[in-house]
Design brief:
Strands 1-2-8-5-6 form a five-stranded antiparallel sheet, with no helix packed on it. Strands 3, 4, 7 and 9 form a four-stranded antiparallel sheet that branches. The chain is α+β, with helices and mostly antiparallel strands. It starts with a helix and ends in a 13-residue tail after the last strand. It has helices at about 5-25, 120-130, and strands at about 45-50, 75-85, 90-100, 110-115, 140-145, 150-155, 170, 175-185, 195-205. A hairpin with a 4-residue loop joins β5 and β6 (about 150-155). The protein has one domain (about 45-205).
Length: about 220
């Protein structure tokens, strides 16, 4: 037998032997376990208002109107409820939008906040010039308070950042009672006669979990 045939025969014999060994050595028992139907879902951030604690909560509420205010008046104009209707804990903050103050002398409306709730610094400067002591407890003061926590959310007479609100933290499904009050001090002079203040209050919500925002008195 030639060398070439001997080598060929050796290859065939080795391959056949390997196949037999494989067939005889790897007949293994097996089993499978499955972690099935896995899901991933995000939470929700929602805020709603209601005039009563057991009422229907919605994204808007009936407007508040005060007429005929006179120097020395101080009153609670509205008490209502804000609810976290989402699934995540939230920071909720009141924001004034589309706010205008109109003097009684016919000079026209002064814009304080635009539709996005951005303060109009020129308008504020005009109001401070037009109305003596505007935005102070010594004249015209407007306040938003959280009666549930005792926290003042907005106060025009605050000594720092008077025109910015404060956050309150509300857990999912929880409700806080909100109170709106005003005061027209007895020292308010004739610059306030015939004044008309109009605008809306929005309650903005943002998740509190993993929120590194440290300054609470800032707009969202």
């Amino acid at each position: 037998m030639s060398l070439k045939k001997k080598l060929a025969m050796a290859v065939v014999t080795t391959t056949a032997g390997a196949a037999i060994m494989a067939a005889g050595s790897f007949a293994l028992f097996t089993s499978t376990a499955t972690n099935s139907a896995n899901t991933f879902a995000t939470g929700t951030v929602n805020v709603a208002l209601s005039p009563t604690v057991g009422g229907t909560y919605a994204s808007s509420m009936q407007s508040i109107n005060v007429t005929g205010a006179a120097p020395g008046d101080a009153a609670t104009v509205k008490t209502f409820f804000v609810k976290n209707t989402g699934s995540l804990s939230e920071y909720i903050m009141p924001k004034f939008v589309s706010c205008n103050v109109t003097p009684g002398d016919g000079t026209g409306a002064i814009n304080l906040y635009d539709a996005a709730g951005v303060l109009n610094s020129n308008g504020l400067s005009s109001a401070l010039t037009k109305f003596t002591g505007f935005g102070t407890a010594a004249a015209f003061e407007f306040k938003v308070e959280d009666l549930t926590t005792g926290q003042t959310l907005y106060d025009t007479a605050a000594t720092s950042n008077p025109l910015w609100g404060q956050y309150l933290e509300v857990a999912p499904g929880s409700t806080d009672e909100i109170q709106l009050t005003y005061q027209l001090a007895s020292t308010a002079n004739n610059t306030y006669q015939g004044m008309n203040y109009t605008g809306s209050i929005e309650f903005d919500a943002v998740q509190s979990a993993n929120n590194t925002q440290t300054v609470r008195h800032a707009k969202i």
